[in-house]
Amino acid sequence: MFKDFDQLVGALSDYCVAPAPYVILVDGFTNAGKSFLAKRLSEALGAVHVELDEFLNNCQGTYVAHIRYPELIHRLADLNSESRNIVLEGVCAQAIVHRIELTITTSVYVKRLVANAWVDGRVLREARSLAEAMTTEEGKTQITSRLDEEVFAYHFRFRPNERSAFVYSWNA
């Protein structure tokens, strides 16, 4: 796990030594800091930042089902044909990459810490079921929208924090 941005950049630079283009996927919970990290990584690595939000049909309530996949595929193909390196970022990112059958070079999972604790981690560490994961210790639901439900389900089932090669954490 990385807490220092420069160390993360160094590790990614060492990892992405294959000929261009490479694709680094940035994933994490909603409001974890994915966009901020992806922008910084793109600048540091000389890559193009592609936000999955750019391809989202807004106000639909969920994410994965409402991505404009043909446009996303076209954009990625254009960058690939130009041999451009890519930092691709968004919520439920591994599910989307799987859906379009995109081969990524590596992935970074972003953990937002509060008082040095990963608040969202309870979902993945302690819960024995998705229903339990979506409930607070006081027995109240953590779900305020269909998007929240989708993100919790994605994290519970996909476990992107375990599947990512790199983890970057920061204190909010």
What keywords describe this structure?
Rossmann fold, 18% strand
Quick overview:
The chain has helices at 5-15, 34-45, 69-81, 93-100, 122-125, 130-133, 146-158, 160-163; strands at 23-28, 48-51, 86-89, 106-114, 117-118, 166-171. With 172 residues, it is of the alpha/beta class.
Domain unit count: 1
Q: State the helical fraction.
A: 40-55%
Model regions low in confidence, pLDDT < 50 over at least 5 residues: none
Q: What does the overall shape look like? A: globular
Order of helices and strands: HEHEHEHEEHHHHE
Structure, described:
The chain is an alpha/beta fold and 172 residues long. It has one domain: P-loop containing nucleotide triphosphate hydrolases (Rossmann fold, 3-Layer(aba) Sandwich), CATH 3.40.50.300. The chain has helices at 5-15, 34-45, 69-81, 93-100, 122-125, 130-133, 146-158, 160-163; strands at residues 23-28, 48-51, 86-89, 106-114, 117-118, 166-171. It is globular and about 50 Å long. The model has no long low-confidence stretch (mean pLDDT 88).
